[in-house]
Each structure stands twice: as C-alpha cells, then as structure tokens.
Amino acid sequence: MSAETFLVRTMSDTVETDIQRVHVIANEVLTRYKKSPLSFEQLRKVADGPFDLFLIPLIFAQDYQRDPRIIFNERKRQEIRNHALEIARKHGYDTTPPELVPGIEGSLRAAQEAGLANILMTTGGRRFQHHAMERHGIGGYFREIIDRDETYFVKEQGIYHLFRKHKKAQVILLSGTSSYIRAGNNLELCTVGGDGDRLEVYTVALATPCSYNDEETLSAARPKLLIRGLDELIPKLRECGLLGRAALAKGL
C-alpha cells in the first residue's frame, strides 16, 4: 500500500492571521513585568506559540541564561498564560477568531484535489479551533486537528503523532514559524517502531506578512522549500516531485 501524504498546516500563520493579536498581547504582558515592548519587526524575530515559549526568555532573562529549560517551568508558563488569557478576553480575542489568511480556502481545495490530506496543527485547544474553522466554513477540508495535547511541550510531538497513527506516511509541514520548521527537520533522523520506518518530513516555510517570523528568520531554520504565497504551494510541490506519490496513494 502506498503511504498517504499529509499536508500539515500551522494554525496561527498559514490558516489564520494571528500575528497582530500576538503583538498586542505580548506587549501588554511585557508591560506588566516592566519590560520594554517589542516593535513588530522585533516580534517577528522571536514569535512562537504558545506565548510562554518566547516570553519566558524575555521576562525571566537572567533565569533563562542560567538554565534555558526554564521555558518548561509549569508555574511560570501558567503565570504568563493567565496574563495572556486576561488580555485576550479584554480585547475579545477569546471569542472572535482572527481573519483567515488570504487564499486559504482555495489552497485547501487545491491540496485535496492533488491527493493531499489537510491536517491542522495548533498549540490551542481542539474544540475552540474546530468551532473557528466551522464558523469560517472550512472545517470540512481538514482530516484532523492536532492540538495542544500533542504540541504543548515540543512541536516534534505533534508531527510524530501522525506517524504513531499512520506508520506509512509522508508529512509536508507548512509553517510561517521557524520553530516548527526546525522541529520538522529534526524528525528526519527518527524511525517509527521496530520496523525501522523512517519519518519523512518535508518542511515548507511560508513567508508572508501573516507569518509569525520574517523571511530571514524562516530561512535560518533551513526549510526544504520557502514560498511567499499559498498560490505557490502546489506548483512548487509538483516541481519537487512530491505530488505523484500523494496522487498514487489516493488512486488519482
């Protein structure tokens, strides 16, 4: 049986336009700790999800220098999340999803027609994200949502989750966040179970104004492919020979 090909899209910058909200919340959190706010350009060098992953090194800088593992300190993570949630509620972000990335529905449809299975990856909760996708009318395009249960500690977990369910699988990871690109590249060295099946992850960086990180930061993460618009995705994947296998698995 041919392996299925999954197109994994990160929620906050390849499906939704979340970065402006991140800017607002991050700066209000930093202000509460008497830290200098970030310009938008500075934010796009460090932005990540969830919030605490990039705010802890800024807020608790000395502690982070002594021990970078502090980003996994649950007490500090919860402290920052509480602030972020309070600020999000003040602005109505917790109930109103951001606008979609331009061209996302056409991109989802084109991926399906090319034989790819669309997967949504998020550091948020599955129920809220599912409702948001349904409200936008695009929920039916996604085979599965990988949420914070799989991505909370390290993003590799979220990608590896697919391989635990589908040992014969190829993943194309599309993200505008450098940490996701690095996570996808890290998994190339892994195998699944005792059969020695190699994880196949092809990383694609999406560099647009909606991306969490700017093009320079994304390029530094060494994606296999960098595109500057969703309309480039399927043609570029076809040029790289990644769609023939997907079509074969789908019987197209």
Quick summary:
It contains 14 helices and 8 strands. With 252 residues, it is of the alpha/beta class.
Describe the structure.
The protein has helices at 11-15, 19-32, 40-46, 51-59, 61-66, 74-91, 104-113, 126-136, 148-151, 155-165, 178-186, 215-220, 233-239, 243-250, and strands at 4-10, 117-121, 142-146, 169-175, 191-192, 197-198, 200-206, 225-227. By secondary structure, it is of the alpha/beta class. It folds into two domains: 4-17 and 98-250, HAD superfamily/HAD-like (Rossmann fold); 19-91, no CATH class. The strands form two sheets. It has a six-stranded parallel beta sheet, sandwiched between helices. Helix 12 links the parallel strand 7 (200-206) and strand 8. The chain is globular. The chain starts with a strand and ends with a helix. The model has no long low-confidence stretch (mean pLDDT 88).
